[in-house]
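hey m, so remember when u said the tokens were messed up on ur end? i reran from scratch. heres the input so u can diff it against urs
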Amino acid sequence: MTLVPRSEFLSAVTNLAAEVYDFHERWGVEERLPDSAIERIKIRQPLLREEMGELDNEIVTKDETALAEEATDVAFVAIGHLAALQELSLVAVETVVAKNAAKTDATHYINRETGKITRRDKAL
């Protein structure tokens, strides 16, 4: 499998985020949600669980195109969570981006069992 060029990937993800924004605006999603961030996400969580279930199902079918579409649906709903969190998401995105950008071989390693980037033990 070949790596997608960075510019194409960023363009695709930007288009996805723009459509989430437009979709929410078109349907008045944020206006129909409660003021509390916690309550907003509580209402939205079943949407994300449903999409995750559909993604899990596509792993079983082994249809790679459908799998990619379901993964994108998961991202669409997850980005929708950020839109629903409004101003809170702006700081959170910057925090998470900075935290992940700071991870290096010196501070983290790839856990072979899980595939997760994991913090190295500071005692080492």
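this time it looks ok to me. Residues 16 and 75 are 8 Å apart (CA to CA). if urs says something different then somethings off w ur setup not the seq
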